[in-house]
Amino acid sequence: MIFGVDFLVLNKADTVIWSADHLLYGNQWGYLTQYGRLLNVRAMNPEWWRLLTCQFLHSGVLHLFVNGIGLICIGSIVEKRVGAKRFLLCYLLSGIGSALITMFFTYGSVGASGAIFGLAGMLLVFMIRERKQVWSREPIFKRLLILAYLILPNLSGINSIVSHEAGLICGIVAGLLLVGKQENEEKLELN
């Protein structure tokens, strides 16, 4: 919804909404993007809300579509495993952690990729702890989509690599903490 409002409504006066440039690169200087995108750390102070808002903005329809595929494929596995609350907590922690790291090393960014890569980090924790059973239960097409999502976007430049890998690391840490806590709660329930 946020992308739709930013993309279709809150544009500069001379924006041609259905142009190839707008579809591919999005509303780069629309109201929401201008005031919600992540900036370099030197430009952030005092606008710290950008650590959260940047996760809900995307640079074009293709960016939104690719992140949607990643979120559906990876998120469905993680949410089934840990439930909605822990899923959301991992998503937000990974997204904010990724944004914190990204703002120090790049000029800024938009997109949910850091948070989604965080979910992939959590999935990796499950795969290691459960001897890959979580992964092997998924259809081959879904596994191929996940692998493509984790590899192809990193080819688009340094911003993507920093944001994605920072999110992955945050997701691994969140996964270790949340999975350990979940296992302790399950042991208490059994006793």
Overall average pLDDT: 80
Structural class: mainly alpha
Percent of residues in beta strands = under 5%
Strand ordering within the main sheet: 1-2
How many angstroms does the end-to-end distance come to? 45 Å
| Continuous helix count | 11
Rg over CA atoms, rounded to whole Å, is: 18 Å
Poorly predicted residue ranges? none
Helix percent reads: over 70%
How would a crystallographer describe the biggest sheet?
2 strands, antiparallel
* Molecular shape: globular
The helix-strand sequence is HHHEHHHHEHHHH
Total strand count, please? 2
Would you write up a description of this structure?
The chain is mainly alpha-helical. The protein has 11 helices and 2 strands; from the N terminus they run H-H-H-E-H-H-H-H-E-H-H-H-H. The chain has helices at 2-8, 20-25, 31-36, 41-44, 50-53, 61-82, 84-105, 113-129, 133-136, 140-151, 158-190; strands at residues 38-39, 108-109. The protein has a two-stranded antiparallel sheet with strand order 1-2. The N and C termini lie far apart (45 Å). The model has no long low-confidence stretch (mean pLDDT 80).
Describe this protein with a few key phrases.
191 residues, mainly alpha, globular, two-stranded antiparallel ribbon
Topology:
Elements: H1 2-8, H2 20-25, H3 31-36, E1 38-39, H4 41-44, H5 50-53, H6 61-82, H7 84-105, E2 108-109, H8 113-129, H9 133-136, H10 140-151, H11 158-190
Antiparallel strand pairs: 1-2
